[in-house]
Amino acid sequence: MFKWIWSYIRRYRFWMALAVMLTITVSALNMVNPSVTGRIVDRVITGGEHNLLIKFVLIMICCTFAKAVLRYLYQLIFEHCSQNVMRTMRQDLYAHIQTLDFSWFDKSPTGNVMTLLTSDLDMVRHFVAWSFYQIIENSLIYIFSIAVSMQINIKLTLAFMVVAPFVAFLIWKFKIQIRPSHLKVRDQFAVLNTRAGENIAGNRVVKAFVREEYEKDKFDVENTAYMDRNIENADIRIKYTPAIEAICGTLPVILILFGGYLVMNGEMTLGQIVTFNGLMWAFTQPINMFGILVDNMQRFSACAQRLYELHCTKPKIVNTPGAISKTENGMIKPIEGKIEFRNVSFAYDSAKVLDNVSFCIEPGMTVGILGPTGSGKSTIAKLLCRYYDVTDGEILVDGIDVRKYDLQYLRRNIGITMQDVFLFSDSVIENIRFANPEAGFDEVERAAKLARVKDFIADLTEGYDTVVGERGVGLSGGQKQRIALARLFLANPKVMILDDTTSAVDTETEERIRKSIKEQSKGHTSFIISHRISSFENADIILVIENGEITQSGTHEELIKQDGYYSHVYKNQNEL
How are beta strands 541-546 and 339-348 bridged, if at all? Predict the structure, then answer.
């Protein structure tokens, strides 16, 4: 884990090394003023060398100024490096998330992912910008203070160091207890973020069913749990901090009693006692800071562990060695569009969704897929796009297993409009152009016309430049579906999958869209998944899926003659 973090820090190793050198210099300069103060007492006040006073005062002023300038420089360098580390790491993790497949997103709440990319990463930044140099600075101050003190009087130095084992023991105990607590805090924070995100995204449903109080109570449970985790965390810190401070509080007593004894015995001068008094903060500050730094280190470690787990997550759906990506004269060659399922079975975890499904579709055919909710219709589309891999059997495109194709090549050739329409918080034109960023306005307008987006575009305040809002807020379900359909038409893939594309549009608009689909489907293999029999008007073959199995297949005329699910749905819909 730390090796992975270091791989980002080492990119700025020159600046980090410079900052470390400045930190070392400042730590050493911290020893100057206490030493000079002791000499002023011994040589100027007691010894009568008054001519040295101005010289010693100038040394102290210059030292103080130099420390201020150098501290500003190294803090500036560490902060800039930390921001760069955070930016690069966030960019890499975001890019890594793009490679992960549907199964990971199925199990990863949005709030948790957002926590990882924001507050967890900020803790890494905090470590590089503050904790890192504080560890170096305080460690060196402690070491340098011991070295200077040893040169003055070994006995008093050893007396000061008596407290070190007790502090080390407390810090060790603190470290063991605080790390699991920080992990609990971060995990609960992710849960809280997820709860808030879900409520905000689903606020219209909450209001529609008057569930505001219920949602408040659910949020309060997670918010209280987060508070409890933080209180437990604080209790651990509070338990150890006073003990460490109390131990450090014995140093002035040691200085007065034992130091005074040494002065009376002639083993030390008054100026040396003053120097020790000036160095006392160099003993106590690092000891007090070590508790804070251990706390910061464990918080950083907990966040880094969560980030490293994300980094180590590998996608299950990957290109095989020698993945096929057809090209001709440097141009991507589209597939022909022959689709075959051979004894395909699939299960989400342990729940079986498809069982021994087989069918073969020739290039250019239009296929209808009908079935009750949860029968596995959409799963067929997702397997064809290889969002998931089959549990058993194989799916062939142009006679080649989809697992042998390059993923990007496969998905450029197989386009899909999903049941749950997603629009970005952007303009209408950019949502359509998402399928082909290089498309000109004429191409976008043609796709919009085919998808019947032009029927309502004039009603929007800024036409194609109207920003639709997050997830298409402000548009009706039918309008969102038509924009999603236009996006698919603009992509113009060889195989088109329309998953419940017209479920939210009126009958008249659906009829127009069917004509557009028929026009766009020429030379394309098309799959139309729907609950409406009318959607299969242009289908060459219709598959009926029930409980993950194909129970019927044939043309519309053939299926209505059979006593099965298709004819029952047909009668019910025509009676209406």
Answer: unpaired
Give the predicted TM-score (pTM) of the model.
Answer: 0.82
Domain covering 2-312: architecture = Up-down Bundle (1.20)
> Environment class of residue 41 by beta-carbon count within 10 Å: exposed (0-12), middle (13-18) or buried (19+)?
middle
Burial class (CB in 10 A: 0-12, 13-18, 19+), 336: middle
Token code pair at residue 114? 């957002």
In the chain, where are the structural domains located? 2-312, 333-575
Considering just the CA atoms, what is the radius of gyration of the chain in Å?
35
pLDDT in tens, the chain (576 residues): 788 999 999 999 999 999 999 999 999 999 999 999 999 998 888 888 888 889 999 999 999 999 999 999 999 999 999 999 999 999 999 999 999 988 888 888 888 888 889 888 999 999 999 999 899 999 999 999 999 999 999 998 888 888 888 888 888 888 888 888 888 888 888 888 888 877 877 776 777 667 888 888 888 998 999 899 989 888 888 888 888 888 888 888 888 888 888 888 888 888 899 998 888 888 888 888 887 888 888 889 888 998 999 999 999 899 988 888 876 555 567 888 999 999 999 998 778 899 999 999 999 999 999 999 889 999 999 999 999 999 999 999 999 999 999 998 998 899 998 878 888 888 889 989 988 888 898 998 999 888 888 888 888 888 888 888 766 677 888 888 888 889 998 988 999 998 888 776 777 777 778 888 888 888 889 999 988 888 888 889 999 999 999 999 999 888 988 888 999 988 888 875
Which CATH class name applies to 333-575? alpha beta
401 to each of 178, 195, 319, 357, 568, how far by Cα in Å? 51, 41, 12, 15, 36
Residues 6+ apart with CB under 8 A from 19: 73, 74, 77, 78, 81, 133
3-state secondary structure 503-565: CCCCHHHHHHHHHHHHHHCCCCEEEEECCCHHHHCCCCEEEEEECCEEEEEECHHHHHHCCCH
Note the residue count of the chain: 576
282, HSE (Cβ side, Cα atoms, 13 Å): 27
Q: What is the DSSP letter of 405?
A: B
Can you read off the two tokens belonging to residue 127?
A: 């470590």
Tokens of 199: 């409520």
How many CB atoms are located within 10 Å of the residue 55 CB?
Answer: 11
Tokens (6 digits) for 197: 């995100």
